[in-house]
Design goal:
Five copies of one chain form a homopentamer.
Chain A lengths: L1 H8 L32 E7 L4 E6 L6 H4 L4 E7 L4 H11 L3 H8 L6 E4 L4 E10 L6 E10 L3 E6 L8 H9 L9 H14 L1 H21 L3 H34 L6 H66 L21 H22 L4 H6 L3
Parallel strand pairs in A: 3-7
Antiparallel strand pairs in A: 1-2, 1-3, 4-5, 5-6, 6-7
Helix pairs in contact in A: 6-9, 7-8, 7-9, 8-9, 9-10
Chain lengths: 381, 381, 381, 381, 381
């Protein structure tokens, strides 16, 4: 049951069951809470322009300060939320509003876009499909976009779907090297949204398997699987819905940090978010439909079981009664009316014939009503 | 199960199960993915004005270049997405934005309208009814409208519902020959939307058949059929809903490429899209209602089975008990109280009479409660 | 099943099952399709002003031309859609846009309002209650309002709820004779909307009957009736919803052909449309509730049947077992331990007493649990 | 069933089943329909200013004419709709638009606000809780607000929740005596909205009772009660929803007859309407939940019944079989293999021991699976 | 049942069952109703600026008058609604509109924001988790914000989640001491909204427990628990929904009393409200899903019970029949055809062999159909 348990909590609280990780009511705004299990932050820096790319792993947040005001695009990627000290120093270097730091650190936050004077903060949620089982890892990615830099903060260093972007920067594919930090932000957002498709693919396949299972061999396990799918799709919906809204408001309301060129690309990104949402909703409806089919299939099975019992009982109960009759001990000598059949020459064969006729008649009636039809097809394991 | 399996995937990924056909997260925007199974593109060109019509099948995309700037209307119809090279050359000839090419090639894309400076891109979805079975082929049709040309790209060369438009151009029926490319675009959109009606017709008929089946003879097959209908209507809804929105935004926001005259026609097209959506929703509600009726019918059947068992058991169990009594071996000689009935002159006939009375009484009770009523009507196959 | 079959199709396609009556994809806009079964059009003309009323049945559409430009109000009422020729000549006389003719003739069209330069086209749907059974006839009524004339086109000559309007014109009741064509259009619309009330009345009564039936004597027939109601209410909703929207847009957006005076009256008409919709929705919820009640009632019945079986079996099975014991043939002479009860003086009476005690105890247990309570009340036919 | 029948009809048609009370399609707008059963109108007049209050019961509508233009506030309260003559004379005195008279008289009308030039017409619906049973009386109250007067028309003289307002006028409590007719209108509206709370209170209590009943002792009666609640809440929703909208539009759009001061009070009234709606919706969801719980409880009960039957049958059927074996009449003398057990010294005791072991084993298995657990708790009446 | 009963009423009426605590229809606006059980109000005053903090418990409302116009921030916190006199004097000191006093005192009021000229009134609802059980205390907190003061009125002195704010004021943490009354109001609102998270945490954990229970061991208790969760989530939704709307309207419409700085913080508070709502909705859907799973699990169980009965009956009924045959008393001496088997040398062993074959065959059939599979897994307690 472990896997089932963890899932709905991922959007609610981090891993440790003992402590409270949500903001305690009455806490100062900007209070950050560090989960003892959280991995220590690792800081990567990529600084590039049309001609050069610098890759670095930084030891202290302060090391990235000199890059921030340069015209080259600086991408600072922090992975892990396990140190209040480092995160606060980072906030200082980037001059983050206390509320921004809170949003970035106190995961899970609802995906959203916040517009500060010279920074645009995008809280988003990234999903990465699990291998071999149908499920996904989910983590928060916060983007802080400045004029010449982009700061991204991920919950943990594993399960990342941004590798493609890094390689495009390295290889200088497309226009990424000649574009600004806003294009980089778009690229990452696009990668995050597109990261939902492989996850949905898994669910699509899983639903198909269940469609067969629910009709061919519905077991209580099937029920659990359907419920699990419904629950995880609910999570996906909660992750994608606000991201769509956020991207939409970014396109509509605009922002000085986002160029018109990039806005066109964001429209494409928005379309994909809508498509993800569409698929999530469709899968949810299919899962609900499966639940109905499951219930009906269970009813059908019970029907078949009942029919079997009824056929067996209905045939043998009258026969047993007839046998019971001739097992009675009425004294045949006291009266010619006391069970004279027992003395007949053809008594026993006649009795068997009567039983055979009763059984045959009942079987005919059942057959005529089609009760035997589904026995072979349905109840087979 | 093949047919069932394919359907929900058609809007998700192309035919091959082994490869991923969705945009990989982190891919460059504009990256196009060619499915190995996709048919090679065939390019048709129709160029017409009031007086002349030219029909041509082109070998290379470049051949259509000379037609594009002429004032005559040029319709380039590409069928099949199986060659990256040809599609990229096509994009060059038509000067398509990389995102447009991606939308056109990386099917399935959600239907939408994108407004580029001098091109209007309409992604739409065409459905064609299957023959003999209740189902449909679904493919993406992308329209790129320029001042004097219209480029359409279809997923595959089969299952096309645009033949009527081609014949109207040939025969010069109506005002199509004297109108511009925008009217042609409208005509195609209208044909695509109207193409939903014959498909819905199929489902309407199928639902009617099921309405009878579900009451007269509900089997597990019926359940599968209802689920299949619900699922395919879900697909139709996903196809028509965004098309309606797209057409509506086209009417409302306007565009230089669309004349006022054509906008009036688009209103009509919009009305039809709404009508399609209405019908889809109605059919979905009917299908949901059918599921309820199915469940009730199964319950009713079980009820009848139970009644039958109860009637049979309730009648014979007391009789068997009576027979059991007189089958006991108490020694009648040891005491006048030990089963004196066995020695009576009328013992056996009396015993049978008692049994008959019990059976008759029970049958009367059952008959009075109306338990026999539905036997003949319902359980009949 | 005929009646059931016809209903959902009325909004989908006309009567003939063999031909397709929907617009074929690719057809020219304005193409009209004539159903072979459609009754031939009959043309009535009423021309009136404050002082005079002229009634006429016309033979050709052209006969109404002289009336159209006169300041008196001219109401041309066409009933039946069975002749392409007449309808096209009519369109010529009234100078209809091809799309209008298509909307008017190719029924069923979704109710809507179209604003052409000097004509206002209202497509609406009229329902007329059936006599004696719960159901309704539904037909499309199209209104084309010009400055001095109103053209109405009905699908068929029967089942009309406009008689009251005609008589008001004749008798000069109210302000109709001194008002313009816009007031006449309002009057007809109002009559059409008010025509929904008697139909809903039928359904209200029918639902009440079913409420009793579903609890007192639920049969599979009941289920069919509930489903039929749900389905027909769905049709009514599809008919009234767009009419409400259409009237609303007419009030809000205004039109030169509609005077402010009449707009106040339209608000009243709009309120009635909303009231109809309210009632339809309420009835739909009641019908859904009935379905739940039905399912529960069937479950309850099965429960009672099961209880009966359980009571019968549980009482007699132990008794039969006891009788079986003393029917065994152990040789009482071989051992004093072999069924000595058979030799007892009070053996048989004691055995019967034991049986009576067992039966009494079980009956007491069942009675205490209240299992006998509902037998008399529920299962009664 | 009487009570059940009446309720849904109250919003549809008045008491008499034989006649049609809805507006006949084609009737002249403004046609009023008098129900033969409707009580004759009684006319009360209260005229007050800061210093004086006049109470009067009027015989003719014309008697109130002199008060209408005086600066003192005049409240004319008409109770009963049983006379076309009086109502039409009233309309003349107050100079009502024919549509207003229709709305006021042809109950039930949907609650709404109509803005005429110098009159504001508010159609609202008043509910009054029934005594001792859970239910309510519902009647239409129409308010016509003029500069110095307020006309209210109630369906019937009984069941009024406006007594508190009258007493406030008499006693001069609060600011009512020094305020205008608009404040009086607000006060009445507020009383009408607040009148929903005691009704909802009844339903809240009733739902609580049912929550216990549905778990402790679900019977078919319970089902009927739940359905009845759902149905009556549907009515309440239909009554309160449009009133909220009407009050909201009054606040937003404003009107010369309503002072800014009173508008603040209306906001409070609006909040209460929203609160009523909230409660109605909550109760509806609770009632739907109850239906689910009921269904589950019935299933649970059937489960217990089945378990009982299964336990009884499973224990005794094998025992009876064993007894049957030794009731066979194989001739023990013909062969030492023919039922030698019958001749054993310990044959019978051994046989009983075997039976006891079988029974004990089965009981152990059932006990281990927890089948005995719920017997005592659940099935108790 | 006590706990269950109390919950839905908390938002409807206070503790006493005998009296009516809602506003009686017709009551004067501003009428306040004091619950006899309500605790007497205790008044706390905190007055602070950058340098000083004054804590005081006041005896009379008038004591706080001197603080109100000073530039230091004055927070007057009233806990308990048990005295009309004190509350009215308080209203006088703070110059409250009668409607404000009514809203504050006549709990429960729907959360909302009212904008008076120089006061901003915020009605909100605070929830505090219960200890050890899954549940919450809910009370109304009203905030009246003036230029230099904030008045808060709580329903009762216990269960407060504002302690964190008080300690921040005392310790001078963050910017609270250097900010105005608007920041204090925001801080309290934020604490109230954040107070929903620990409550939701409880429900999240409880749902997880139920997910296991519903599959492993569904009992009628489980059903009650699911219903209780659904009902309490409904309450939470009713509490958070209007608060979100209120905060949103505060951000959008603005108010002179709220500085731009604080408005940024309110956006954060709004985001948390949305997150709470999201979680409530997700939990509600999970709870609904659980209900479905429960129903299916009960059906599955019944299925297993039925299978057990069927297996037992089907195996032994034919055997008992065979035993019955050879228990018949046909006279073997009258005819060689009368049960000659009884005289055979191997008669009895053969008979037993036949029975064994029948039983074995049936067991094989059941095993093949997988009927034995789920016995061990499912029915275990």
């Amino acid at each position: 049951m472990r896997k089932l348990r963890r899932l709905p909590l991922r959007l609610v609280k981090p891993k440790d069951d003992e402590e409270d990780f949500f903001h305690r009511p009455g806490d100062m705004p900007g209070t950050i809470i560090i989960d003892a299990d959280a991995p220590a932050p690792i800081i990567f820096l990529i600084d590039y322009n049309k001609t050069d790319v610098v890759h670095k792993q930084l030891n202290t947040p302060e090391e990235c300060a000199p890059y921030l005001d340069k015209e080259s695009v600086t991408w600072v990627d922090v992975q892990g939320l396990g140190s209040a000290d480092i995160l606060e120093r980072l906030a200082k270097v980037f001059d983050l509003h206390p509320l921004v730091l809170e949003d970035v650190v106190n995961v899970p936050e609802r995906p959203k876009i916040e517009d500060y004077d010279d920074q645009l903060v995008i809280i988003s949620r990234m999903v990465v499909p699990k291998e071999r089982v149908c499920g996904f890892y989910s983590e928060q990615v916060s983007l802080v976009l400045g004029k010449y830099y982009l700061l991204t903060v991920q919950e943990e260093p594993e399960h990342d779907c941004l590798e493609g972007v890094r390689s495009r920067i390295d290889k200088g594919k497309g226009i990424i090297r000649s574009s600004g930090a806003d294009y980089l932000a778009y690229t990452l957002l696009d990668a995050i949204i597109d990261g939902f498709f492989p996850v949905l693919e898994l669910y699509g396949d899983h639903i198909e398997e269940l469609e067969e299972e629910v009709i061919v061999n519905p077991t209580p396990k099937t029920l659990q699987k359907i419920y699990k799918i419904k629950r995880e799709l609910l999570q996906l919906r909660r992750a994608i819905w606000p991201q769509r809204d956020a991207i939409n408001s970014l396109i509509r309301e605009g922002n000085d940090l986002i160029s018109d060129e990039v806005r066109i690309y964001l429209r494409d990104c928005y379309d994909h978010a809508v498509q993800v949402m569409d698929m999530v909703e469709t899968y949810r409806e299919l899962a609900s439909g499966l639940m109905d089919v499951y219930l009906s299939a269970v009813s059908n099975r019970m029907n078949e079981v009942m029919k079997f019992l009824t056929v067996m009982s209905s045939i043998f109960i009258p026969l047993t009664f007839v046998a019971g009759i001739y097992g009675m001990n009425f004294d045949t000598e006291k009266s010619p009316w006391n069970m004279p059949e027992l003395q007949w020459y053809w008594g026993y064969p006649l009795c068997l014939a009567v039983m055979g006729t009763i059984a045959g008649g009942l079987i005919f009636v059942f057959w005529q009503r089609g009760w035997f039809e589904n026995f072979s097809k349905i109840n087979q394991k």
